Each structure stands twice: as structure tokens, then as C-alpha cells.
Amino acid sequence: MTDTLEATADLARQAARIGGPDQMLSEDQVIAFIQERLAGVDLDSRSVCLVIPDGTRSCPLPLLLKAVHGALAGRVSRMTALVALGTHAAMDEDHLAEHLGYPAGNLDATYPGLTVLNHEWWDPRTFVSLGTISAARIEELSGGRLRESVDVRLNRAVVEHDVALVVGPVFPHEVVGFSGGNKYFFPGVAGEEVIDLSHWLGALITSADIIGTRGITPVRALINEAAALITSDTLGLCVVAQSGTGALHSVSFGNTASAWASAAEVSAETHVRYLNAPVKRALAVIPTKYEDLWTAAKGFYKLEPVVADGGEVILYAPHITQIAAMHPEINEIGYHCRDYFVKQWDRFKHVPWGVLAHSTHLRGAGTYDEENGECCRLTVTLATGIPEDVVRTANLNYLDPGDVDVAAFQADPETFVVPQAGEVLFRLR
Asked: Pick from 292, 273, 54, 6: which is nearest to 179 by CA?
């Protein structure tokens, strides 16, 4: 681990950065930094693909995109913004307009010459294969946890441009340690093969052990290996945003690895909070940017480390009415701890591994054996608009959201209430 921390620190020093954990940047500072950095890169007459986040991340994307567009318009031959959906639902025109900051139906009014694309992960024509990572190399990268070759498929828009510029935030992340950087390619605009393999690797390590881990985790190493196959030049504009507001602590610029490493240093000091003792119960108040349980589960990931054995995490999200429309398999298998799947692998190996990973991440730590069955460390309770029968069939606990009194929970000394849950990680000292 020391070696990976030193390697990450070396990478971070290679990037240019403005701001830090204890700072808040003005819009003028952000714009000036972006324009200065992009002016120093040879982009004239080259095509540029901007890989940007979807609506599930706190980020002042209109500010960043306007600064980038202003620095590149008239210089580059072609400019495309590709929304890194991973396997999330596509953003419609109204959502895109709000997200990017232009009048709905009139992209050209704000971003003349820009093309905006959703990552159409459901369409095989979206992808081009960059090559294969061998089973032996996967075994090495995964620390022996997996031995399986993987076809590295990526959205063809990335490789059909001369330069790919990742523009987006960095937060603690349940699969990779800290999000951002090359993760915008894999899984952001990748084929299901790398998505499934990387997420299942994270699940084998477990969310509680990998989330907020500094340095190059095995999953980050796998993502970087895949990104090394990209033929376009790759650059990163990685920001650290104040959760829930989008105001910026820092902006880092470099290649995708160095810009990420620089931002991850700031995120580790900004987005991780520490408690002195475990809590019996946590109430995660889920913001409306998470529209289904697939994304709202981040409220659990960020709180699992501080809840005592036998305790409970309540996800309070009355606005959520479905588990995951894009991933119906989760309704069939429900939510279970890692060992429930690993020790019954023949039953579940056919299920997409990304779905299995999501299942284990939300159910948290636990054990399974044939004699005693499944025993999970925590109770996971949904106080959502998802019907009770669906919740219980998915192996989760149900609470009527109409019975949730947030103020009463806040007054309860045994309950830890987190508003705007999902981005800030809580750990024990």
C-alpha cells in the first residue's frame, strides 16, 4: 500500500492544481485556470471529445463546460461532449439542458459547434474493441482474485477524436476507492465486459474495504490498464466539489492519471468525515438527483463503515419508486452479502457481475454457509416509494416513508442523520 500511495503522490505532483481542501474557488479563478491550461496544450485543428458526468454527481458542469468550450471553440476541428452514463439511464433533452446549462432545444445558443451524446451502452454499435487484457494479467492486477481475460470495448466516439478530455468530479467510491480520471472511460463509456469485471473485483474486495482507499487500488490498476489501450491522447480536468452545492474546492489539470491523483488528494481531505464511535442507526436522506435505488444505494455505501454490528441504515427517499429499471436482474436475485454468491457460484455466475456487485455493495458485510444460511452485519431499510412487497422480496427491510420524521430522528441520540447523503464518506477514527 505504501508503494501505491507514493506512486499516487508522484502522479499528483505532475498535474497543475488550483485550490485545496480548505479553499473555495471563485468562478473567475476557475475560468482563468481552465483557459490558461488549455491554451498551453497543442489542440489547434484537432478533434476533442469531452467525457462528462451524468446528473448523479455534484459538479458545476455548466461553469466547467462553458470555460472549456470558450477555450476550444474556433481552435479545434470538432468538439463532442459524451455523457458517461456507465449503465445509468439516458438523459433526455430537458435533463441535458439543465445539466449542461443551455436553453432546452437550443444547444447552439450556448455551445455553438458542440455535439452532445448520451453513452448508448445498450446499443452494440456504440463500441469499438481496443484489444484484450489477458487472464494472466488480470490475475496479477487483481491480486489473484480473478483469472479471466477481458475484451476492452469503449465508446467509439472517444477513439474517433484526436483527444479525449475528461471533465468531472472526484469523490470516494465504493468500487475503485476514489472516482474520476480514467474511471470516466471505464466504466463510464465502456462495454459491459470491463464494467462487470471491475465491479465484481471491487465486490470481492468489498465496498467497506475499498471505499475511500488512497492510492492505486486493484480496481484502479485494472481501469488504468484498460485506459492504456486508448489510442487518442487523454487529458483530465478533475475537480473536487462541495457536496450538495457544486462549489469547487479545487481544479486539477494534466493527463487523466495525474489530474485524478491530484484531485483524489483533495477529496480525501474534503469528503471523508470521522466519528469517534460507531452509531446504532443511520438515516441517509437521499437527494433527488438519485432517481432509483441503483444510484441511491450510495447513501448506504458512505455510512456502512460507522454503523455498529447489528445496527441499521435507513435510506429515506420518498421520490424513488423503483429499484433499477435498467437492471431488472436485481429484482430476481435481490440483495445479499458477497459470500452468499461466492459460496453458491454455480447458481449465480450467469448473472451480470455488475449486478451481483451492486447487490453485495448495498447489502454490506456478512457470511453464508449451507447450515446457517445468510447472516448480514447490518439491517438495510428502505423508506422509499418502492412498494413494500418489492422491497421485502429483494431481501431488504421496509419502512413507510410517511412514518419518517427526520426531526425526531435527529433528536434521537442513537441515530446519525445525514442530509444530502451519497457523496461524503463517514469512517471511524
From this structure: 54
Q: What is the pTM for the complete model shown?
A: 0.94
The x, y and z cell numbers of residue 383, run together, are 423508506
SS3 42: coil
Which phi and psi (to 5°) does residue 112 adopt? Answer: -60, 135
Taking domain 273-428, whether its CATH number is 3.30.70.270 is answered by: no
Tally of CA atoms within 13 A in the half-sphere of 55 that contains its CB = 20
Sequence-distant contacts of 374-380: CB under 8 A, at least 24 apart: 374/336, 374/337, 374/339, 374/340, 376/336, 376/337, 377/309, 377/310, 378/304, 378/307, 378/309, 378/310, 378/311, 378/312, 378/313, 379/311, 379/312, 379/313, 380/300, 380/312, 380/313, 380/315, 380/335
Q: How far is CA 399 from CA 178, 228, 318, 326, 382, in A?
A: 31, 46, 11, 24, 6
Answer for the pair 217, 180: CB distance below 8 angstroms, yes or no.
no
Residues in the chain: 429
Give the angle subtended at the CA of 248 by the CAs of 246 and 254, to the nearest 5°: 120
Task: Calculate the CA 186 to chain-centre distance.
Answer: 10
Residue 381, strand partner residues: 314, 397
Tell me how far apart the 2 most distant CA atoms of the chain are, in Å: 68
Is-same-fold flag (2-270; 273-428)? Answer: no
Task: Select 2-270's CATH number: 3.10.105.10, 3.40.50.300, 3.40.50.11440, 1.20.58.100.
Answer: 3.40.50.11440
Residue 132 is which amino acid? Answer: T
For the chain, the structural domain boundaries read 2-270, 273-428
- d(CA 250, CA 17) in angstroms, rounded, equals 7
pLDDT tens readout for residues 286-345 = 999 999 999 999 999 999 999 999 999 999 999 999 999 889 999 999 999 999 999 999
Q: pLDDT tens across 83-122, in order? A: 999 888 899 999 999 999 999 999 999 999 999 999 999 9
